[in-house]
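Possible regression after last week's pipeline update?

I re-ran a chain I had predicted before the update to compare outputs. Posting the input and the new output here so someone can diff against the archived version. Not blocking, just want to make sure nothing changed silently.
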Amino acid sequence: MLKVALVQQRCSADVAANQAESESQIRRAAGEGAQLVVLQELHSGLYFCQTEDTGQFDLAEPLDGPSRHRFEDLARELDIVLVISLFEKRATGLYHNTALVMDADRGCAGYYRKMHIPDDPGYYEKFYFTPGDAGGELAGFTPIATRVGRLGVLVCWDQWYPEAARLMALAGADMLIYPTAIGWNPADEEAEKQRQLGAWQIVQRGHAVANGLPVIVSNRTGMEPSPDGEQIQFWGHSFVAGPQGELLAQAPADEPTLLLADIDLQRSEDVRRIWPFLRDRRIDAYGNIVRRFID
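New output (post-update):
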């Protein structure tokens, strides 16, 4: 069994306080036996993408910056694998939304730069982030090898794309991991909120089913205002699903939570034997999947 922990956290503008809370929860998770700990998307601060503001680029740091070293040292000290999120400054004028994987044995085992970038009201990420590179070592849809398995790390908006999950599975991922920042517009009707939440859960549980892999989703929680007066109520509900989409653990909507779950990685082997979806794929018939639309 692999014991995993998800840190569902409220964030403020105080980076030091946010990181201290993350560290506290990581230590608690390790104390409870977690071998893999996953933090939410952009956990060091507020979700700044609600508006377009060039001043927010001051929050970015390089891959080899202080956040990496802090959490790399923590993973080594606690003897765990740790997935963190970073607003990465790759070069002047070039920024990414990046997940880093820390392995106690190897330090930073790898990273993934978010490939699908949204641009919706309250989620103006295209202003800030360049899509991840599609090729090259440790880029694109490449699982990251760790002591607990090959991690198919994706980020938030990637979770709506079956192609991303499938490519990670085809590249040998043992599990799919989604650090996430998603929530409701408080002005929406309750029925609409529940439709959105249901769709978010269903699509990711569908990735588990279609690929015969566990799925780990760590989302943020809490109300976060923006300078223009709008706000997002992040809906929490971090969860872990097994390879048939079954819920193994789920956090509440509006509470900071350390969510623990046990994952039996052998079940992926067992499930894929009775549901051999990879065997039956018609790879000779999928050429049009690379087109934007079939006119």
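Follow-up from reviewer: compared with the archived run. The helical segments are 15-31, 66-78, 162-170, 190-211, 266-274. Marking as no regression found.
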